[in-house]
């Protein structure tokens, strides 16, 4: 992480106000007990989230239990087998993952009981007493949204941040090809998918990392009138076709599709700077799960 990103994250953390005060007082208490439980760490996080705990959420424990003592914390996008193995190697027994562990949004496993891949992963977690907690709804409900903060700073857009409209960035006029090159370099990805004229100028950028869905993308385009929409993932028969038709109509609208995992991973890296001061006796480490695809 660059010095500039660290400085910005510090500024954002200071601006959170009451959330930080809660975290600070909790940190003092935790300093007196070097081995908090999984449940205590989760409760500490939830104290910084407006309206938490939510009555309905996917952010539940997927393995392990709330009463086990924490030896180390890993943040990641997906609790892949590789991430689990790295957690074991570093003696960390608590993984905070943004996305599902067992291949569906609700992490339902009844349909996977006889599946060898599921059983291998489940048994690996159980053998090494690894707790996995999903941090999806809550990190997006944090003020500011932790994922957007991470992605914004990774891309170098922090100077254009508007807290009144945090998903839109008005940048100096840049060619689409330069925005693409910056995203690939800053996020460490070999290729992206693009709709648009690579030489067209863009100034108003609508940033929607992850997979918010075609309706969200299209409604965002309608309300914000961007030159460029940057997203993580899409259904090709929704957003892509809308952007294609908009261009054929004559709109100067472009689209960059980063890929789901890489578009939100910086938010889980942001999680380290958010959580580490609250658990001073526990090492918090980010392990990127990375992109599962090769580009042939």
Automatic annotation (TrEMBL):
Name assigned to this protein: Putative GTP cyclohydrolase 1 type 2, NIF3 family
Record's keyword annotation contains Ubl conjugation: no
Keywords for the protein's UniProt record, in alphabetical order: Hydrolase, Metal-binding, Signal
PANTHER family named among the record's database cross-references: GTP CYCLOHYDROLASE 1 TYPE 2 HOMOLOG (PTHR13799:SF14), NGG1 INTERACTING FACTOR 3 (PTHR13799)
Family from the record: Belongs to the GTP cyclohydrolase I type 2/NIF3 family.
Gene3D superfamilies noted in UniProt: NIF3 (NGG1p interacting factor 3)-like (3.40.1390.30)
Leader sequence residues: 1-31
Cell division recorded as keyword: no
Record-linked Pfam families: DUF34_NIF3
InterPro entries: DUF34/NIF3, DUF34/NIF3_sf, TAT_signal
Amino-acid positions noted as binding a divalent metal cation in the UniProt annotation, renumbered to this chain: 98, 260, 264
GO molecular function, one term: hydrolase activity
A GO cellular component annotation in the UniProt record: cytoplasm
């Amino acid at each position: 992480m660059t010095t500039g990103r660290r400085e910005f994250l510090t500024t954002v953390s200071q601006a959170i106000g009451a959330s930080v005060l809660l975290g600070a007082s909790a940190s003092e208490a935790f300093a007196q007990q070097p081995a908090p439980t999984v449940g205590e760490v989760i409760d500490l996080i939830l104290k910084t989230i407006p309206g938490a705990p939510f009555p309905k959420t996917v952010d539940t424990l997927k393995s392990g239990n709330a009463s086990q003592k924490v030896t180390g914390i890993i943040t990641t996008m997906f609790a892949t087998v590789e991430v689990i193995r790295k957690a074991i190697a570093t003696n960390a027994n608590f993984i905070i993952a943004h996305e599902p562990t067992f291949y569906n949004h609700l992490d339902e496993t009844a349909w996977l009981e006889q599946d060898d891949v599921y059983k291998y992963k489940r048994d690996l977690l159980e053998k090494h007493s690894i707790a996995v907690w999903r941090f999806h709804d809550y990190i997006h409900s944090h003020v500011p949204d932790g994922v957007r903060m991470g992605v914004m700073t990774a891309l170098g857009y922090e100077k254009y941040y508007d807290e009144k409209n945090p998903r839109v960035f008005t940048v100096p006029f840049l060619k689409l090809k330069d925005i693409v090159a910056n995203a690939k370099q800053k996020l460490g990805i070999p290729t992206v998918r693009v709709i648009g004229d690579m030489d067209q100028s863009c100034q108003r950028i609508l940033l929607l990392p992850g997979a918010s869905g075609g309706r969200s993308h299209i409604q965002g385009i309608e309300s914000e009138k961007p030159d460029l929409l940057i997203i993580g993932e899409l259904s090709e028969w929704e957003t892509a076709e809308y952007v294609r038709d908009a261009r054929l109509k004559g709109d100067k609208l472009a689209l960059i599709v980063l890929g789901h995992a890489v578009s939100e991973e910086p938010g889980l890296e942001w999680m380290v700077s958010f959580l580490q001061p609250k658990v001073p006796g526990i090492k918090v480490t980010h392990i990127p799960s990375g992109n599962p695809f090769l580009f042939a």
